[in-house]
Amino acid sequence: MSRHHTGAMLCGLIRLELVGVTVPVLERDDARIYYRDSKKGSPLVLLHEYFGTGESWNGQRHVLARGYRVIIPDLRGHGRSVADRNDRLTVSTLADDTLALLDKLEIRSAHFAGCSLGAIVALRIAQTARSRIDSLMLSGVPDITESGPQAYGADYAKQVFPKIEETLSQRHGSGDRAYVRDMLLRNFEMDLEEKPADHFGAFQQAGSVDAPTLLISGQHDPVFSPQAAVNVSARMRHSSLAVLPDTGHLVHLEMPGLVTELMLDHLARSAR
């Protein structure tokens, strides 16, 4: 695969082979955002982690779709969503992409669930477009209010990226994964240095979130430890917290059934 186009490389990170299936797409600026839409029920948007795709929610989406309209985008620069080679994958851009998708689907508000990067994006939307959020479910949320963005970034890169890389290798083979991983990591680190407020400032304003929020922490998550979860929860007005034993950063992949149950319970309580 040619490396002259970053978007093509990112798209090649996880290749989805769909024969005879039309995949919906949002065209925005210079990007093409692919997504799934179950079309029926109250809208529920699922946002994936760094290096992931919407496929990471396969352990939840079928059950959730029985009662909700499940919408799962591949975030810009991930999976089938192509980004321009000069794109900066900032939280603001990803949040705007997600809101543009809701506009395209003529959805005024939705429930949101996000893991890691997806959690950051969902929280940003909750702060900049509060009326679009019915409820939040967040896991792998980095709490950088004490350590600062650079310390967080170093810890994330050292502990979490290799684990995600290993997961991708097991599922999809190597290919150009190492090249793309290094490119994304450089992008991630540059954003931390140049725009820490854009990338993580949302957590310093967590108290401004009005929506009912479920926080899920893995017992051994190096980024969103149980204590970090308590810290974030204490700053939020309407939050509940679940700590899952013997799990790490990607709880929805490690304990899909339990995470699905927690999500359904939170959604039901949020509707009351």
Index terms:
11 helices; eight-stranded mixed sheet; alpha/beta; Rossmann fold; 272 residues
Architecture overview:
Helix content is 42%, strand content 18%. Helix 4 (117-128) links the parallel strand 5 (110-115) and strand 6 (133-139). It is α/β, with parallel strands linked by helices and 272 residues long. The termini are far apart. The chain has a single domain (6-265), classed as Alpha/Beta hydrolase fold, catalytic domain (Rossmann fold). It has 11 helices and 8 strands.
N to C succession of SSEs: HEEEHEHEHEHHHHEHEHH
Indicate the CATH architecture. Answer: 3-Layer(aba) Sandwich
From the spread of the alpha carbons, the general shape counts as globular
Name the beta content range: 15-25%
Structural class, from secondary structure content?
alpha/beta
Overall number of domains: 1
Please compute the radius of gyration using only Cα atoms: 17 Å
Strand arrangement, major sheet: 1-2-4-3-5-6-7-8
- The CATH H-level superfamily is Alpha/Beta hydrolase fold, catalytic domain
Distance between the termini: 51 Å
CATH class: Alpha Beta
Describe the protein's topology.
Layout: H1 6-13, E1 25-28, E2 31-37, E3 42-47, H2 58-64, E4 68-73, H3 91-104, E5 110-115, H4 117-128, E6 133-139, H5 149-159, H6 161-172, H7 177-194, H8 196-200, E7 213-218, H9 226-234, E8 239-244, H10 251-254, H11 256-270
Parallel strand pairs: 3-4, 3-5, 5-6, 6-7, 7-8
Antiparallel strand pairs: 1-2, 2-4
Quick summary:
This protein is an alpha/beta fold and 272 residues long. It has helices at 6-13, 58-64, 91-104, 117-128, 149-159, 161-172, 177-194, 196-200, 226-234, 251-254, 256-270; strands at 25-28, 31-37, 42-47, 68-73, 110-115, 133-139, 213-218, 239-244.
